Structure formats: C-alpha cells, structure tokens
Input
Amino acid sequence: MIKALYARILQGHRTVRFPKQPPTLPERYLGRPVLNLSACAKECRRCVELCPSGAMKADARGGVQLDLGRCIFCGACSRACPTGALKHTREYRMAVRKRDEMILGRCSGEADSVCRGKACLAPATSMASDLAAQGDLRSREYQLAEALERKSRRLFGRSLKLRQVSAGGCNACEADNNVLTTVVFDLGRFGIQFVASPRHADGLLITGTVPQNMTLALKKTYDAVPAPKLVIAVGACAISGGLYAGNAVAGTGADTHLPVDLYIPGCPPHPVTILDGLLRLLGRIEG
Amino acid sequence: MTGENFAVLQNAQAIPLSAIPVVAEQEFRNRVLSEVENGARLSAFFGSPQPCEDSAGPSQGSSAAKRVRLYCVLARDSARGLAVLATDVGDTYEALTPDCAQAHWFEREIAEQWGVRPEGHPWLKPIRFHASYRRRNPERAGDSALHHDAWGRSADAEILPGVTDYYRIEGEEVHEVAVGPVHAGVIEPGHFRFQCHGENVYHLEISLGYQHRGVERALIGGPDRRTVHFMETLAGDTTIGHAVAYAQNVESLAGISVPLRAAVLRVVALEMERLANHVGDMGALANDVGYLPTASYCGRLRGDMLNITALICGNRFGRGLVRPGSVEFDLRPTHVAELRQRLQAAYRDTKNAVELLWNTPSVLARFEETGVVTADLAEELGLVGPAARASGLQRDVRADLPAGFYREVKMPTARMQTGDVYARAMVRWQEIENSVGYVLDCLEVLPAGTVRAEMRELRPESLAVSLVEGWRGEICHVALTDARGRFAQYKVVDPSFHNWIGLAMSLRGQQISDFPLCNKSFNLSYCGHDL
Output
C-alpha cells in the first residue's frame, strides 16, 4: 500500500489543460491543409496524381479541390506542390457538421474579395455541377463545427454518453479515442463517457468504413439507441471510406447508412482533434 | 539456392519463381509434414491462381484442372532459414490439418478464398465471410463453370458474417453465451461463442471477418500510390511492423538495401511501437483485474511512447516513416537527445507503475494459473510472439531469422515457462526492459549518412518473403511478382492469424469471467486478421 501511495506521488498530475490552454503537438505534426488557388500552377496536377486516397481532385476549371473527408494526411500533395499553394498547417481543429464543408478549394483560380486568397471552400456541389454554380460561388473560411441547437444542448451538453462502434478500419482511430479516457485527456471531466450498451447511449461514435460485414451490426446498434440520438463519424474511413473507398467489400463510410451530426477528419485524427470536435458539438468550445 | 526438397532462402530475400519446386500433391504433403515434424513452422500457406485462370475461360471445364497453386513458406528457426514449396491442386486436396494443427486456419482461408476444399479438414468453415475469389459475376451468362466455392454456395448467395454452425455442447445444464460483434468497450468487432457449464467454459469458438475490407485484393497490380498506405493500415497499431515487412520485400525484389542509418532508425521505430503497445497492455491487464493505479499510469505512459514516435515523424503511429528504400524522416542531434531523455523518463515511470503489479498479491492471484497454454500446445498450434514465449518457446524473428539491423546487433529474447496470464504479462515487461535498452544503444551508435537508397524496378516472376517480429509476434509478408514486376499476389500473415486459436484454447476450463483478462493477455488484432 505504501508503495502504491509513493507511486501516486511519483506519477504526478498528468491531465492536460486543454481546452483552456492550447495542446502540445509534435514538431512534425501535419494538421489541416490549406489551399490557396491563386498560387496554384495551373495544369500541374501533381497533387492529384500523387494522392493515394482520391482526396485531391482536378477541378473542371483548372484548379484542384481537396476533400478533407478522404484525406489521410500523408502530406504527399503539399510536399510535391511546386508553388506552395497547398500547405499543411499545424491546425488541429478540423471537425465540421456537414460533409461538404470538408471540401477545400475554389475554382476561379484567383483570389477574390471574399476569400482574399485564404483557404476557402466551394459550396455543396459536386465537381460536375461546379461549372453551373460558378455564378454564385460563395467562398468561406473553413467552417468548424457549430454547437447543437439549444434543445439538444440542454439534453446532451452536460452529459453525453456514446457507444463506440468499430466498423472496418485499422484500429488506430479506436486507439486515439481510447486515449481520451486516460488521465491525460480525462474525458469524464466534460461529462462525456463511452458506455457499453447502446441502450445507455445518447449516440454512436463510428470509426471504420462500415464494410459489408458490419452493415447489419451497425444498423442494429443504431436502432438500439433511444432517440433523440447523435452520430459522430471519426476518421477518413468513417467519413468517406478513406483509403478503402474503392474496394468492393469495404464500404464508403457512416453516412451511407446513417445521418451524421459531426465529422472529425484525420487518419487517425489526433486525440485532441477528436476532443475539440466533441466539445464544439456540445458548445463547450466556440470560435 | 534450390535445396534438395525445398527452395531455401533467408528472411528478406527474393528468389525466382522458377527456383521453387512444384511437386505432386502427395509429395507436397509428405515434405511439409516431415519438415514440421522436424521443428519447422508454417509462416505462410496460401493459394495463388494459375495465370490461365482469368484469361482463358473455362478450359475444358474439367474440375480436375489444376487451377490453384499452393505455396507453403516454412520457418526453420534453428537452421536460421526459410523453405518454400509449391503444389498445384484442383477443386480438392488432402488436408494437412489432421496431421498438422498449425495448418487449420490457413486451410480454412485457402478454402474460402479459392474454393479449393481441403478434404478431411475437421472444422472447415469460413474465416472472413466473403465470396470466393473464383466467384464469377452471376449476372453474366456462361460463367458458371468458373464458379468455385468450397461450400457449394451459389454465386449470388448472400454471405452473412458469423452465420455458421458453431461447436456446441449439449446437456441440461450447459448453456451458450454469445458475445459480439459489437463489444462493450472501444474495441474492434468479433463474435465469441462460449459453451459453459455454470461459470466454467468448456469451449470458446471465435468467429471473425467483420473488419474485412478487401486489402489483399487491392494490393494486386501494385506497388502503386496506395500500396504503402494499405500496409500502414493493415493493423493501425502495427503500422511500423507491417511497413517494414513490406519495405523489406520491395527492397529484396529491387535488389537494393537501405543505408545503415535508415536501418537503425527502422529498428528504433519498431521497438518504440513495441514499447507503446506493451506498456498499454500492462495497463489494460491491470484494468481487467481492477487494479486501477497501474491501469491509469500506463494509459498515460503508452501515450508518452506514442508521442516519441510522433517526435520522429509527426504521427503517433509512425505513419509516413518507413518507405521502400528509405525512412522519410531523419533525426537531428537535438531530436536524439530529446528522444533519449523522454524515453528514460517514460521508462522510469513505467517501471514504477509495473512493479506495483508484482508487489500486489491480489493482482498476482488473478494472473497466475489463469489461461494456461502449455508449451506443447503452443508448439502444436504454431503460436508466435509474446504468447509463444510465455509458454516457453524460443521463438523470436529478431533472434532466429533476423533481418535489417537485428542482424548486426542481437536482441535478447524474453521467455517464461508457465504459459499463463502472468507469464504473458512478465514476457511483455521483460521485453519493455530489453527494448528500452536496445533503443538507447541504437541512439548511441546511430551511424552518420543518408537515409535513402535509390529505388529500382522490381524483379519479375519472383517470390520474396519478409518476416518482422512485430509487437504481437511474427509478421509474414510474401510477394509474388508477375512478368512486369508487379504484384501478382501479396500475402499478409498478421501474428493474430496464428494466435486467435491460442486465445480460444486458453479459455478451456476457465471461468467465463476471466475471458477479458485472457483476451487482454493476448491482445490480438481483428483488422490484421480480417484484412
């Protein structure tokens, strides 16, 4: 017993100050990419050719678009970019509420008064209909997740119980979700907890591509969660199928099957990216 | 190079396909069995379609046509080498499993993938629940002759995971407990069936495949821009292990070797991966017996180990670090100093946290004599990694079949005899100590120079085998190239593929409430198995 007490003193207090203080990230960390198309060398397309997960797409008007929901953050694109139009920042905040908000890149090829050359994104259009939308192309800065509306916040804001469903990934997203429950992040202090039964849960946190062999199990788990319920997709696989999206049996992510309330990009997302996303959803972090 | 009965090669070596003896079925069976009898292990055993399969259509429509070539890669640990043998089979062949239990999972895989039935296999069931690779599109006419399914399922039959017959014990007081695929914790999906009498488990059967995402099929035709990323996500917690196994294969096929500095950085990353996972496992084992101090400290310390890997390459799992011919990140002297200092601090705290376990009788009472796997059983089943070493087997790729920097500087092998949860925990702890020492030594001698070699074309019509001692045990990758030097097939054997049956056997005669503890003491990969 005395040894256990001595150990307690030696091990010290290890909980990070996040969100009151910014997180410590590795020096070589690759965070959210930014795309400045006014600097993009037209018809270069090197990034598109190198992208392993199909996140970079050539745009009908000569630019490129980057789908953060497919990006595996390998950095091949920014390393190859000859003009520095595409860069990885150290920005760890990435969670969004809508799928199409993860698509970076504009099509005009020039900075305009709205974007002033900053990273911006096209509205909810497919690549093909971009041309039609050219007229009223609104560009915005990356729109981080907004909090749930008031009623849901009253329900979940101070106590959110999540059932995690692992469905066809590589277990790295699961590992970095698990980390949130350690003393380092101490998820419990925010009233968020992973629970064993979907019946006890307010929502699902899904990782993986949702392959054929998990489709039924995921649906049954979702059905077992009492309404109102949330769905959170963590990692490129759960958002879009990620690297596996082309494989016939692999699936294309959670929103193929369920309505998703929060998307957290990454491969895997850093634990603090996940935590930031959860806290934004609950309105515990703003701005 | 061609030995008397087998093609003989070293770990991380490529040989021409023509050097591999292709013998008759019976001869294949005899040679493999006698080799196993003499102490060799099955590292890989898989089917490969013959080239005529895709192009020629239903040649003569004869079911006796030898359409699938079976390759067997045997590890001769004591002779420090590998042996490869092949045979061509039709729709059936005589199963090896009745005489060689190690083959049982491989033969189920062969049946499921290629529709080849190993006759006499005592428990022939799917392992991943996908359609046969020799299934033809049911909507296309005239293809029926090309449809091969080991269970006679039609080409358009729906295959549901876990829907199969299970081993069952009958009796008035016998009951069955079914768990999964969705489990209670933040863990991967799998299905477990326990046959119980009261609290006692008579038998556990494990049914997987829920994580199957078609990786092996997607590797054909590579290497391409996706290949290395598939390798890094075969099992996310073994990113470095699988990436090194892959890189070694490509390098041997290209006939290049990485500079010494890169080779050292690779083993540093491999040992850091082992450290992070072993430290995490020590915490998880403590958690499963309700000893929370160590659980809590090791949870933090695992993150510290991962963050050391992130110091090297920016990613906690080592993504982007290992590439064929190189490591992509070099360490500056300041990095080396910081890495050393952080590792020493993490080790000091880990030692403190883990020693609490050995000093706590209530922990030891739960660890000792729980989930015993005897040495004979481990040998028979072909277990690998810490699970095998905990049962007293001398089995470690780093010592027996070393490649890369392990050839230059030897790694001590941890070993225990009792084969219980305690032994599996203690082996991990000894390996933590060994790995810390090894990494610190590596940093001491880190040679100067470049970390990149120039890549070349891959040799056509060749086979390369690469073994890496990952933190769970032996990772085996086998690459077969076609006439253009592209992957005709790429076989991945994660250590979990060997060890899931070990977990099932360890539960026999245990209380069902000890399942989480036994499970954690193996800590196997679902995604690495399911691919």
User: Anything to note?
Assistant: The longest helix of chain A spans residues 212-224.
